[in-house]
Write a structure and sequence with these properties.
105 residues; mainly alpha; 64% helix; 4% strand; elongated
Amino acid sequence: MVNQPQIGTTPITDELAYRILAEIMPNLQDTFFRLRGIQEKWVANDVWTTVNTAIASSTTVAGFDANDWKNWGDALTAMLTFIDQPLGEGRPTIKQVLLKNYMKV
């Protein structure tokens, strides 16, 4: 683990390493796992059929406009697709960067 920086006595790189590894990465990892869990439940319970049926019949899903549900599902799919994309030729995916266990060298 990166030590918490001392204000005014720590180089910016130490501060950023701490903030990235101790604050941002754990939150992004948690969000990723939550998104993946929602997607798995969505697929396992065939929510797309419910949403598409509601759109066709102009009804709501759980009290929300069915088109909002379509947008939520599409956004969820797009986010999870995005993090599986490499950062460039021969470089890791966003998911690999997010889930890597970083150690000082």
